[in-house]
Amino acid sequence: MFWRKSFVPTAQTNKDIPLNTPATNLTFTVFDTETTGFAVGSQDRIIEIGACQVKNGKVQEKTFQTYVNPKRDIPPEITELTGISNVTVEQAPHSLEAIQDFFQYVEEGQGDIWLGHYASFDLLAIKKEIQRHQYRIDFPICLDTLDLIGYLSPAQHMLDLEIYASQFGSRIYDRHQALGDALTTAHLFCELLYHLEERGKTTLFDLMEISRITKRHTLF
C-alpha cells in the first residue's frame, strides 16, 4: 500500500489548545454514522454521516447530513432499522466525497474537538473508508459520551443512547438516523457538562482525563 497524499480533516484546529481551556469555551463537533452493519473494520460500509456542533455549552443550529453510496447492497434489517434503502443512496456521494464534505463542515464551524456516543465505532468506520482510498489522515482529539457517563454513573454499562438521554432528561431526536443521533448526543453532552461542572470538572484536560480517548489518532 502507498499513500498518494496527506489528507487532513480540520487543519489541526485543536493542535495547540491549552489543556486548561474551559470546556464551555470550546466548539465540539458531535458526529454519528449509519452503516451497512457492525463489521466496519472489515466488510461493512458507511451509508450516512450526520453532525452538529456544541459551542459555549449550547447546541448550534447549523447541522450536517449526507447519505453515502456504499457500493454494495444494504441488508433488509438495516433498512428496517434506519429507513435507508438502496434507492435512498443510489445517487448519494461515495464515501470519500461525503467524508470530505463532513470535514469541510467541521473546519467551517471551527470544531475544536470531536465527540460521539460510542465514538470508537464511528471513528473506525471513517478511518476504514479513508484507508480504502489509500489516504493518510490525522484525527483531532475525540471524546466519548460513554466515558463521561461512566464517570458520572459508574454502575451504568449500557450503550443505548436513548436510555441515557432519558435518564439525564435531555432531548431525543430521530433514532438510528445519523443526524438525529448526533443531535441527541449533543443535547446529552450539554447535560453531562452541567453535571461535570458540579464535580469541578470544567476544562479540556478534565474531559480528556475522564475519557479514554486522550490522544490524536493517526491512520497509517
TrEMBL record:
This is PolC-type DNA polymerase III. PANTHER family: DNA POLYMERASE III SUBUNIT EPSILON (PTHR30231:SF41). SUPFAM superfamilies: Ribonuclease H-like. The keyword Hydrolase applies. Residues 27-198 form the Exonuclease domain. The keyword Amino-acid biosynthesis does not apply. Keywords: Exonuclease, Hydrolase, Nuclease. It comes from Halalkalibacter alkalisediminis. InterPro entries: DnaQ (IPR006054), Ribonucl_H (IPR013520), RNaseH-like_sf (IPR012337), RNaseH_sf (IPR036397).
